[in-house]
Amino acid sequence: MQPAPLSKARIKLYSSLLSKKGRTRHNKVFVDGLRVVEELSEKTDLIECIIVSESWWSAHAAAINSIQRKYELCIVPDSGFAKIADTENPQGIGAIVKITAFLSDLPKDREEGVYLYLDRIQDPGNLGTIFRTALWFGVDGIILSSGTAEIFNPKVIRSSMGAVFFVKFIYDDENYSLINRLSELGHVLIAADMQGTNLFQEQIPGSGITIIIGSEAHGVSKSLLDKCDKIVSIPRLGGGESLNAAIAAAIFIAHYKQ
């Protein structure tokens, strides 16, 4: 099947998805790369259409024979593809993907799951890496505080390797309504903080837990620390001022998902 030319109007529409305003208005995002497109095709129904550049199609048309029958397939000149993608050197294949918030509800009792609460994580690379780690370890959901970076920022999607589409998440409000609800449900709230007790001497709770990770610049906010049942740190055995937030999150998740 030959791809259909993408109209100038659609190129203009899809290029608007480079901005947060455009993504919010149209409830869509462009993702770049064959691997992510294949995974989304296999595991979701979120793809609106697949877009290829002329040069990519001429060299790799056979690579998407298995998925092009499922979706509308469009082709653009290389210059048009560059207007849609946010990288200097795009791969030449991508997809328009529908945006949706995946975490519709929270656990109904204390026995359910390990959750992450991200407090003002603003670096897109860190946020994406945390989602990638959460997917690997089977975290049950991620809650994001007000002030955390936008999940569907293209930099977050790239650093997550597409994990943002497969990990359930939801945003909290400024009053911490969701963290308050988790506490009421009996979840053990555990904050990562350099002044806390040694993580590796902590027993793993038998009930549901929520791990709270703060930004590298400010850590977990005092208002959240005051709500926590435990404040825990990763012991420093060598040098360095602090750990990257994504690395710290990975160590906490690995410990509590044993």
The overall pLDDT, averaged over residues, is 90
Q: How many structurally independent domains?
A: 2
Sheet-strand content, in percent, reads 15-25%
What is the terminal separation in angstroms?
Answer: 48 Å
* Total DSSP E strands: 11
The share of residues in helices is: 25-40%
The ordered H/E elements are EHHEHEHEHEEHEHEHEEHEH
Indicate the structural class.
alpha/beta
Low-confidence stretches: none
Question: What's the CATH architecture of the largest domain?
Answer: 3-Layer(aba) Sandwich
With strands numbered from the N-terminus, the spatial order across the biggest sheet is 8-7-6-10-9-11
Helix count? 10
- Regarding CATH, which class of the largest domain? Alpha Beta
Briefly note the CATH topology name of the largest domain. Alpha/beta knot
